[in-house]
Design goal:
The complex is a heterodimer of chains A (180) and B (255).
Chain A lengths: L6 E8 L7 E8 L2 H12 L7 E6 L4 E4 H5 L14 E9 L5 E9 L2 H12 L4 E8 L4 E2 L5 H5 L18 H13 L1
Chain B lengths: L2 H26 L8 H28 L7 H7 L10 H4 L5 H22 L5 H29 L3 H19 L8 H6 L6 H18 L20 H16 L6
Helix pairs in contact in B: 1-2, 2-6, 5-6, 5-7, 5-9
Classes of the chains: A alpha+beta (180), B mainly alpha (255).
C-alpha cells in the first residue's frame, strides 16, 4: 500500500531499566533520528519510558505460527559465512504486543528465525519478528533525562488531571442517593 | 534583594513568561493541521512545554512581587489587555506555513538556550533553579527543531525555498529578541541576569552555523521591524482575544 506519510518505523519501549522492550506501535519519519524523536513524542508522553528502539518496518521478518505451519519459508538460503546479530521478538499468546525475547547470531533473518524458535520455542509464541541489530536505532542514554523526565512532572497532560463532572455521573450519583 | 531590584527582575521575567505563553499559543494552532500526525503530536507537545515554562516564569514573577503565584498567572494570561503583554513580536506573528513555524521555533529555542545558560548562573537562587529545570526540556526541543531545519533546508527545492523565505521574514524579528528588556539594566548589573548583548553573540554564532549546514542564509542587511515589546503588531490583539475568549465568558468562574 503506498503511503504519503514518509517511511514507517516500529517502536519498542523499555518501561524501566532492565525491563524487556515491548512493541508500542509505529511512527512515520524520513529517517531513524526523526523516528526516535517522533517515537518519544508519540509513545512516551505518559511516564514510564526509560529507552526507545526504532526499526524500519519493512526490514522486519514477520511470521505467525499459522504461516509457519502452513510451510512458509523459514530456511531460505543463508548467506554463507556472514553471521550477524539478530533481535528476536515474539508475541506470547494471542493478547498483548511483541516483546523482545533475546538475541541470536545467524547468517540471514530466516536462520535467525529458526534459532529463535529453538531458543524460545518453549514460550507460547504466536507471532515472530526478526530484526537485524544493525537496522535498530536506540535513544541516547545520555539524553534520557531530557527526553523522558519532563513527562513525570506534567500531570496536566493527563486527562485525569481535569476533574470534569459529567452529567451522567451526577445523574448516577443522584439515583444512588435516592436508593439509600 | 532590595525592592527596586525585585520590581525590575519581576518585570524582566514577565518578558520571558509572555514570550513562552504567546509562542505556546501559536504552536497550539497546529493541533490538527500539521503535515503528518507525528508532527501534529510533536507540536502540541512543544506548545504544552512552552506553556509550562511560561507558568514557571509567571510564578516567579508573582513571588517577586509578593503576589499569589496560584492566581496571578491566570489573571495575567486571561484578563490582561493585549497592550499589556511584554512578548517580543517574533512570537506573535501568525503561524504561516510549516517552514515558518519550524524555523521560528528553531530561532526561538536557540535564543532560549543561550539565555538559560546565563539565567542558570543567576545570583537569585529560585531563578537559577527554574532556568536549570527548563534547560533539561529545551535540550529536546533543540534536537527536534535542529533536525527539521536541516532536513527542510536540504530537502526538496520547494522545502528549501520555503525555509529561505521564512528566514528572510523572521530574521529581523529574531534579531530584535535581543533588544534590552524592561528591567534588564538593573538585573544585569546586579548579576541576577545576563546582558542581552552577550546572549546575542552566543545565539548568533550558533544559529548561523546551523543555518549554514542547512544551506540557508540570513539576510545580510535588515531594517528595524518598527515593533517591539511595547509596540505590538496587530496580530497580538487577535491572538489574545482568542486565547481569552473562554475565560472572558465567565470571568468569575473557577476551573
Amino acid at each position: 500500500v503506498s503511503d504519503s506519510q514518509l517511511s514507517r518505523f516500529e517502536v519498542f519501549v523499555q518501561g524501566r531499566k532492565g525491563a524487556a522492550y515491548v512493541h508500542a506501535g509505529s511512527v512515520h519519519a524520513p529517517d531513524p533520528e526523526l523516528a526516535l524523536l517522533n517515537a518519544r513524542d508519540v509513545f512516551s508522553r505518559r511516564p514510564n519510558c526509560h529507552s526507545l528502539w526504532v526499526v524500519p518496518a519493512d526490514r522486519i521478518l514477520r511470521r505467525t505460527v499459522e504461516q509457519l505451519s502452513a510451510g512458509a519459508e523459514t530456511d531460505s538460503p543463508a548467506t554463507p559465512g556472514k553471521s550477524e546479530t539478530f533481535l528476536v521478538f515474539g508475541k506470547i499468546g494471542h493478547r498483548g504486543s511483541h516483546v523482545f525475547l533475546g538475541e541470536t547470531a545467524a547468517a540471514g533473518s530466516s536462520q535467525a528465525l529458526s534459532r529463535g524458535q529453538e531458543a524460545f520455542g518453549h514460550l507460547d509464541v504466536t507471532s515472530w519478528w526478526i530484526v537485524a541489530e544493525a537496522t535498530r536505532s536506540i535513544s541516547a542514554p545520555e539524553e534520557a533525562r531530557a527526553w523522558f523526565d519532563p513527562a513525570k512532572d506534567k500531570p496536566f497532560r493527563d486527562h485525569a488531571f481535569y476533574p470534569v463532572e459529567t452529567f451522567m455521573r451526577n445523574l448516577g450519583r443522584g439515583r444512588r442517593q435516592q436508593a439509600r | 534583594m532590595n525592592d527596586d531590584l525585585r520590581a525590575a527582575l519581576a518585570e524582566y521575567l514577565l518578558t520571558f513568561a509572555d514570550d513562552e505563553m504567546v509562542l505556546g499559543h501559536r504552536d497550539s494552532e497546529w493541533t490538527g493541521h500539521a503535515p503528518i500526525l507525528e508532527e501534529d503530536i510533536a507540536f502540541a507537545n512543544l506548545a504544552l512545554d512552552e506553556m509550562g515554562h511560561a507558568s514557571l516564569w509567571y510564578r516567579l514573577h508573582a513571588e517577586l512581587l509578593g503576589e499569589d503565584p496560584e492566581s496571578l498567572p491566570d489573571r495575567l494570561v486571561f484578563h490582561r489587555p493585549a497592550s499589556g503583554f511584554l512578548n517580543a513580536p517574533l512570537v506573535e506573528l501568525p503561524r504561516g506555513d510549516w517552514a515558518f513555524s519550524m524555523l521560528r521555533q528553531f530561532l526561538f529555542d536557540a535564543a532560549e538556550r543561550a539565555w538559560l545558560e546565563g539565567l542558570a548562573r543567576s545570583r537569585h537562587a529560585p531563578l537559577a533553579a527554574v532556568a536549570r529545570k527548563i534547560q533539561t526540556e529545551e535540550r529536546y526541543h533543540d534536537r527536534h527543531t535542529r533536525a527539521w531545519v536541516l532536513r527542510l533546508g536540504l530537502g526538496t527545492q520547494e522545502s528549501r525555498a520555503r525555509m529561505q523565505r521564512a528566514l528572510d521574514a523572521l530574521w529581523p524579528y529574531a534579531v530584535e529578541l535581543f533588544e534590552a528588556r524592561p528591567g534588564e539594566a538593573l538585573a544585569a548589573s546586579s548579576d541576577v541576569a545576563p546582558e542581552s548583548a552577550d546572549v546575542r553573540a552566543l545565539w548568533l554564532a550558533d544559529v548561523v552555523q546551523q543555518l549554514d549546514k542547512a544551506t540557508l542564509e540570513p539576510p545580510s542587511e535588515t531594517s528595524p521591524t518598527g515593533y517591539g515589546r511595547d509596540r505590538h503588531t496587530p496580530h497580538l490583539a487577535e491572538l489574545v482575544a482568542e486565547m481569552q475568549s473562554v475565560a472572558q465568558l465567565e470571568p468569575e468562574g473557577s476551573w
